[in-house]
Write a structure and sequence with these properties.
By secondary structure, this protein is of the alpha+beta class. Helix content is 28%, strand content 10%. The chain has one helix spanning 2-32, and strands spanning 75-78, 85-89, 105-106. The protein has a three-stranded antiparallel sheet, covered by helices on one side. It starts with a helix and ends with a strand.
Length: 109
């Protein structure tokens, strides 16, 4: 029973992390006039990219971009397929799809 709740907690944590990253990206966009490119990625929230002349970060409280609850980097894509940007994790199994602890968690859900 405990493992069932642990898996749900990790999925819920991933959703909260994605929400926090999304909010930080929105502030970045307001200050810089665009979201960071896919190539620069979420690191732009911590370190100023060369082309970000109005960067006023860091945009996260901690000195590193958080990993997902399974210890992997979040995937980031600008221009997104599902929104202006997409942030997602593939869950515990690190493959598309899945259920419970293996389910994908994404900014567009």
């Amino acid at each position: 029973r405990v493992m069932k709740h642990l898996g749900k907690a990790k999925t819920d944590t991933a959703r909260l992390q994605i929400d926090n990253l999304s909010a930080a990206l929105d502030i970045y966009n307001l200050e810089n006039g665009s979201y960071p490119s896919t190539e620069v990625g979420l690191d732009a929230l911590i370190n100023a990219p060369e082309d970000a002349t109005s960067w006023n970060g860091p945009y996260l409280r901690k000195p590193n971009v958080p990993l997902d609850p399974w210890g992997k980097p979040f995937n980031y894509r600008f221009h997104g397929e599902h929104g202006v940007f997409d942030i997602y994790t593939l869950g515990a199994d690190n493959t598309e799809g899945g259920e419970k602890d293996n389910q994908d968690v994404a900014s567009w859900e």
